[in-house]
Design a protein that fits this description.
7 strands; alpha+beta; globular; 218 residues; 6-stranded antiparallel beta barrel
């Protein structure tokens, strides 16, 4: 049975023994891959198999190279949080050399960025200063392609990661978006999607491959 302390996962709270072992491990192990995480992005993913379903996704991302990023995706920005998926992001240069069937598995970020829907949550810096930094980062993200799989369908109430991994996509136009979810997210993070859209007006629209965003072309 799931509880609040397990953040929706089956089972009881962690034991004192678990906590002691975790504390010891945190003091003696390095966790270097996790320490390389350099950005927290928040957006919404769409099920490629059913675009009427979408879920909020908190991405914790690492740069592997100038052309490749990888992100762990959690259902919440808190601890505990459920690891629900992974996303890889690549530059157009790499996307263009993929074969046709592979390109169909990737989604664009142009609409997410320019609509203001893709955000980098911040609770430390003044909003105005952070907006400038976030907009600069969005100039880098806007042209990237993402390949995302979710393992845990939290939107349907699953308390374990059940079934096959689900390929996920992104929204590509306003008519697809469940704006009530965006409004709820904005209130929790104290941000304005509309305000971010205005701040990003200087970000140019990128040419998106016709092979990407396949769930919207069926």
């Amino acid at each position: 049975m799931a509880s609040q302390t397990t953040h929706g996962a089956t089972g009881g709270p962690t034991t004192t023994k678990d906590n002691v072992l975790e504390t010891g491990a945190s003091l003696t192990q390095s966790f270097q891959p996790l320490k390389a995480i350099c950005a927290h992005l928040n957006a919404f993913h769409v099920y490629a198999s059913d675009p009427s379903r979408s879920v909020e996704a908190n991405h914790y991302c690492t740069h592997l190279s100038a052309d490749v990023r990888q992100c762990l995706i959690y259902d919440a920005p808190t601890n505990p949080a459920r690891l629900i998926g992974v996303e890889y992001m690549i530059t157009p240069r790499l996307y263009e050399i993929l074969d046709l069937e592979e390109r169909k598995l990737w989604h664009s970020h142009d609409f997410e960025v320019r609509s203001g829907m893709l955000i980098m949550p911040n609770s430390s810096l003044p909003a105005a200063a952070w907006e400038l930094s976030e907009t600069e980062e969005m100039k880098e993200v806007v042209g990237l392609y993402g390949k995302t799989y979710h393992f845990w369908q939290v939107d349907r109430g699953d308390t374990l990661p059940l079934g096959k991994p689900e390929l996920m996509m992104s929204f590509t136009e306003g008519s697809q978006v469940p704006w009530e979810k965006v409004k709820d997210r904005d209130e929790r993070f104290d941000v304005s999607t509309e305000g971010k859209m205005k701040a990003r007006r200087g970000i140019e629209r990128v040419r998106v491959s016709e092979d990407a965003d396949g769930c919207w072309k069926k």
